[in-house]
Amino acid sequence: MSAMALELDGVVKHFPLRSLANYGKAVHAMDDVGFGLEAGGSMALVGESGSGKTTTASVIARLYERDSGGLVVDGEPARPFRSRKESLAYKKKVQLIFQDPFGSLNPTHTIRSILERPFLIHGLANGKADLDARLNDALEQVGLSPAAEYLRRFPHELSGGQRQRVNIARTFAVEPSIVLADEPTSMLDVSIRMGVMNMMLDLKEKKGVSYLYITHDLAGARYMCGTIAVMYAGMIMEIGPTEAVIADALHPYVRLLKSASPSPESGPARARLEAKGEIPSLIDPPSGCRFHPRCPFAKPLCSEAVPELRDLGGGRRVRCVLP
Amino acid sequence: MADSTMLEVRNLKAGYGTRKGFVRAVDDVSFSLGRGEFLGIAGESGCGKSTLAYAIMRLLRDNARIESGSVLFKDRDFATMPAADVEAHRWTDMAMVFQSAMSALNPVLSIGEQLTDAVHAHRKASAAEAQELAAEMLSLVDINADRLKSYPHQLSGGMKQRVMIAMALILKPDLLIMDEPTTALDVVVQRSIIEKIEDLRSSLGFSVIFITHDLSLLVEISDALAIMYAGEIVERGPAGALFSDPRHPYTRGLMASFPSLTGPLVRMGGIEGSAPDLLAPPPGCRFSARCPFAEQGCREGPSPALRPLGGDRFCACALEGRLR
Amino acid sequence: MIKDFFKTLVSNRKSLAGLCILGFFVLVALFAPVIAPYPPKIDRLETITAIGEPSLDEELVAEDYPSDARDVLTYRSTLTKDYTKTIDYFPLRSRPSAAHPLGTNHAGNDLFSQLVWGTRISLGIGLATGLFVTILSLTLALLSGYLGGVVDDVIGFFTNVMLVIPGLPLMIVIAAYITMKGVLPIVLILGLTGWPYPTRLLRSQVLTLKNRDFVRVSKSLGERTSFVVFREILPNMISIAMAEFFATSMAAILGEATLEFIGLGNVTVVSWGTILFWAQANGALLSGAWWWFLPPGICIALVGTSFVLINFAIDEISNPRLRKR
């Protein structure tokens, strides 16, 4: 078994609510989230909005600190930062790509002043000439050339796809070992999504980074990643090799998700799973299995205790009492 | 296929003024829609698909206008009809579901009031009749009738979109135009809404124009498909045929932009570059700058027109037939 | 970025008109000594015709009063030659004339000169208060919005308290307690009553910017808090801060005029407000002496208009939905 780049074990993150009406309550954004990402591997974290997948990325990037549970990066358990040096060292290892190509670039700065920050913060350039060379490389490896042309522009002068490429260039500038990509293509026009996805695949190959690819799109997850983890209402419901999980989903929610996803090859006539309702409130999550109120196969047992994430062998784990 | 034509759009040109000039977002668009037919219009942001929908409904914003062309609906031209007459037909004959149900519903009125208001605005009906109709429509979209007293903020996103559909269908229109109705919703909710529309269409018999950027979804649910690029329809025809054998290079590129859930895992191409500026569209074929097959001739002269290929298929590519 | 901002301001027709009006008044204020025919607080002109040199020890040798408005005094100096001093008194409450284009007031001061010199004080107080309030509220807003928590609660509490106290009475109460020397007290009073509203507005802007992705990116890259605040957030607040500056400046000019008008300012200072105060105190409105009260009123209105025009333009620039299509 190869070394693990990232390991989460029973991570919990609740956001306490400050309003009077909900005093003492909290948003259960992450409960008992655990998975491992192999060095050089790629895992898709799939879920609908409100499933806790973006919180998971923020907790791994340590934009928020987890409430409890283990977080191990490159074999080192994450501890509270004691100095700015420690915090910088961690951030150099773990980088995020944000979803919104328009919101993630400061509109008042040029691409140059945006892109030189990672090099300056982490002291990666020796003098101006070296910085210029690195800026050029950074832009050219995301397919933006001539680099000089882009460096002096402002974000609003670029298209959505170009902006997202600048974001990706910034992410890779610090040469991270783990890249957390939070729906990097969902806000792009459909025709340019593949270009960005392919570029990310090539960069991964070239740089040997590990990806945690967050998406709501099963087909995109399949295209990008070897392993898949499906989250629902703050919990991981099923983990396994992508092909196996998509071909033969075990958790009823994953089956529902698969049956709802557009799939032109299968045609409209295929049998679909029916589910009632929508994703529950994370302030008062359902008792027991969080999917049971919508599950077509729910039994009385399901509302009583939260099922364990059972290991079924072959790298597959599922949080359901049924199969 | 369609037995009788209900809507026929002919050479429609429409656009809107901006600070930099007039943007012709719909440029010489023609298509027809049969009774009970489901037409999907696919295109990327800025291709003019929403302007097309609003132009058909005559709901264009103040800065936008129809330049020329006709929108024949039940043999009357909506494009040139006086505004007062359009009012009479809108909602009773053709209705629309907008992308953001969140902002299309008035937050201070209950669902029931908004549904009954839609009835009263167009038809003489007693309060009790309107109330009954509203309850009936809600149950049609699988929402319990006691929700009539609810306010929009008490409903989930999916439920609000269902209410919008109920409101659009409450006067039993013959045509329902949906502008990205499920884009803001999650996959599972999106699927349940689409299935609801399908059920209602087969029971009530209205036609649907469904506009979205999600081609993989459209292929699955539409009878006919029209692909829009930079203000023009570049290809249209039966959905299945377009999916299995796309002819226009843009359609091919779009089809190669959606990874498959079940097929073999192959590297897909997508399309290089980005859409042209509609303030100053390039000469010749508007896709030529991004087209891998483009020749010198593609970049000159007028934009190629839609040519019939037989079998209800049309394609606006000068190289069509020579591409393999 | 700031350069771009001003470039856009100049290219917008509304703000160009506003900037022109404002520029006019700024020029008047700067060149007041050149433009005004007399200093603002004199009521006579003295001319000395030397028959000889003036000296230390002098003696009045002749007096002549050719008219009510003229004294001719001849002095003899023991050491040097004699000289004559002619004093021309300005008429009191005169109508506009060639010598006094806007007439004179009850004390015989030239109203046109007062108007010109008053521009300095009124505009100066307005812009100084605007600057003071903008800096104060920007600081409070950044502290409150970015740090959040207890800091936000404390600042928010004081902001809310100040917001519910009506501004004018508060200003009057403070003004009544402060001895007015020069114009600084007025700036302080106007500033201390003017910060809550801009603070609240700017704070909400900080709150939205704080949650924008580019701020989160900055943090995830490891930027220091000071960098995030000053390089990521602050540049995005320029347009709204400028809008606040102009709005506050305008409120300050009106506030100054109000305080002076009701006599709580420093009436020895010559500003548009004090001209109005003396006009009202001397019944100019009743006697229909429009040349006394109308010009300062028009000036206040014009400067106000210029600020409003500039603010409209800033709104259009920063809010694309308002842009003319």
Structure in a nutshell:
The complex is a heterotrimer of chains A (323), B (324) and C (325). Chain A has helices at residues 53-60, 84-93, 111-121, 127-140, 147-151, 160-173, 190-207, 218-224, 242-247, 252-260, and strands spanning 4-16, 26-38, 42-46, 68-73, 76-77, 94-97, 178-182, 210-215, 227-232, 235-241, 310-313, 316-318.
Observed structural traits:
heterotrimer, A: 323 residues, alpha/beta, Rossmann fold, 10 helices, 23% strand, globular, B: alpha/beta, 8-stranded mixed β-sheet, 4-stranded antiparallel β-sheet, 30% helix
Description:
Chain A has one domain: P-loop containing nucleotide triphosphate hydrolases (Rossmann fold, 3-Layer(aba) Sandwich), CATH 3.40.50.300. In chain A, helix 3 runs parallel beside helix 6 (160-173), helix 4 crosses helix 6 and helix 6 packs parallel to helix 7 (190-207). Chain A has helices at residues 53-60, 84-93, 111-121, 127-140, 147-151, 160-173, 190-207, 218-224, 242-247, 252-260, and strands at residues 4-16, 26-38, 42-46, 68-73, 76-77, 94-97, 178-182, 210-215, 227-232, 235-241, 310-313, 316-318. Chain A is built from ten helices and twelve strands. Chain A is an alpha/beta fold. Chain A is globular, with a radius of gyration of 21 Å. The radius of gyration of chain B is 20 Å and the shape is globular. Chain B has ten helices and twelve strands. Chain B folds into two domains: 5-93 and 173-268, Rossmann fold (3-Layer(aba) Sandwich), CATH 3.40.50; 107-170, no CATH class. By secondary structure, chain B is of the alpha/beta class. Chain B has an eight-stranded mixed sheet with strand order 6-7-8-3-9-10-12-11, sandwiched between helices. Chain C folds into two domains: 2-38 and 104-322, Orthogonal Bundle (MetI-like fold), CATH 1.10.3720.10; 47-89, no CATH class. Chain C has a four-stranded antiparallel sheet, with no helix packed on it. In chain C, helix 5 (149-164) runs antiparallel to helix 8 (196-210), helix 11 packs antiparallel against helix 14 and helix 12 (272-281) runs antiparallel to helix 14. Chain C is 64% helix and 10% strand. The mean pLDDT of chain C is 85. Chain C has helices spanning 2-11, 13-30, 32-35, 111-147, 149-164, 167-177, 184-194, 196-210, 213-221, 225-233, 238-261, 272-281, 284-287, 290-318, and strands at 44-50, 58-67, 70-77, 83-89. With 325 residues, chain C is of the alpha+beta class. Chains in contact: A-B, A-C, B-C.
